[in-house]
Amino acid sequence: MIDIKYGENGLVPAIVQDYKTKEVLMLAYMNEESLMKTLETGTAWFYSRKRKSLWQKGETSGNFLYVKSIFYDCDEDALLLKVDAAGPACHTGNVSCFYRSLKDAKEAEETEEENPSGTLEFLDELAEIIDSRFSEKPEASYVAKLYKGGRERILKKVGEEAAEVIIASMSQKKDDIIYESADLIFHLLVALRYDGISLEEIADELEKRHKQRS
To answer: What is the pLDDT of residue 149?
Structure first.
């Protein structure tokens, strides 16, 4: 057998590639024992540096890697496994672990700097949903029922939710504070839309105050 050059930790990096599409699926590590088990069983075995033990890809997910061939590089210190994958190679459910592009990440980061946070986009979508409930008034809609109750009912809910935020904050339980704050923001948004006020108008007011004080 070829004398594979394992590192000081007894491991060698193993690149996994789909034998049909040539797509790189994952990078893992092998020691001599996992390599032998891979050759014996025909399915990929690796060594987990975190758990410090052997593991078979697919042993829990069923997404086994059936090895078609194994190549080693010119320095004999890296392996290339060409496999037939029974399912996604990545634990996230993606076909390949290499599903993120540095270029895309950089562009997304630049976009976020220009237009901070997708959170505001979601709130805009939520405002549109509230508007549609106001106009369409579906029977099962909670927002439609609030709207039917008028300003008094809506503002009463805003007051109740504000009190719940105070109680949650006094308890110093982060999950409770987040939950109750979400309720408050939702009902405040309902109140704003009842008066025809947009989030952009609120943001403009905050920006104006910031500029006045800076």
So the answer is: 94
Two tokens, residue 55: 């593991």
The DSSP code for 43 is B
List of long-range contacts for 144-148, beta carbons under 8 Å, 24+ apart: 146/187, 146/190, 147/190, 147/194
- Average pLDDT on 42-61 reads 91
Reported in sequence order, the residue ranges of the chain that DSSP labels E, i.e. its strands, are 12-18, 24-30, 45-48, 53-56, 65-72, 79-85
What SS3 class is residue 188? Answer: helix
Q: Do the Cβ atoms of 24 and 98 come closer than 8 Å?
A: yes
Please state, in angstroms and rounded to a whole number, the distance separating the CA atoms of residues 26 and 95. Answer: 9
Tokens of 33: 């024992």
What is this structure's pTM? 0.51
Q: How many C-beta neighbours within 10 Å does residue 200 have?
A: 11
Between helix 142-171 and helix 174-194 the angle, nearest 10°, is 140
What burial class does residue 143 get, using C-beta atoms within 10 Å of its C-beta: 0-12 exposed, 13-18 middle, 19+ buried?
Answer: buried
Residue 62 has pLDDT above 90, yes or no: no
| Helix H or strand E segment including 132 | helix 119-136
Phi, psi of 15 (to 5 degrees): -85, 135
Q: What is the pLDDT of residues 71-114, one digit of tens each?
A: 999 999 999 999 999 988 987 777 898 877 777 666 656 655 55
- The rounded Cα 104 to chain-centroid distance in angstroms is 16
